[in-house]
Amino acid sequence: KQEVTQIPAALSVPEGENLVLNCSFTDSAIYNLQWFRQDPGKGLTSLLLIQSSQREQTSGRLNASLDKSSGRSTLYIAASQPGDSATYLCAVKDTGTASKLTFGTGTRLQVTL
Amino acid sequence: NAGVMQNPRHLVRRRGQEARLRCSPMKGHSHVYWYRQLPEEGLKFMVYLQKENIIDESGMPKERFSAEFPKEGPSILRIQQVVRGDSAAYFCASSRDRPANYGYTFGSGTRLTVV
Q: Which residues of B touch A42 (CB under 8 A)?
């Protein structure tokens, strides 16, 4: 059974800092991995999707890496801004299941002025 | 280019009533998934549907919960005889294809409160 863990559970950084969020998964037989952002009381916004054959994906100040063999992904945020404050969720889709995503419990990020 | 539309955004029900949550997938998406987020917990898969078919309902509680995705109209998640433990945010996602090569798009959710 796939389990996804995100560390740290919460993080507070001053504006302008670069930061790394971590995601680990127990079963390396994944189809893809997706990073989402969730604002309080809101839905999920997709940030980056990494297929199992890829090593990383970039979008603006965000860079996500994937090391499938070690069961790890990182989300790197450069030059953080207060608007980046949100909960960041990592989700994996296994090759064995055609449907569901398995989510981590998220990292709650606060970027302070 | 509307995304995944869920309604209502907030729903309050008394114990024992029925709750109906609606989800219209993105244009061009024929695969719909329902997830539940309990307070202070991660999102948990409930059910996966294609038009008129339930493909995977392994995450659905055995009783009181049902889902459908008719040929015409939105997908419906129905909870009968709600209890306080059903209070949660229910999210719908859609994808263009079955293995979700292009990822999933989520709606804004329906927050159900059972009083």
A: 108-109
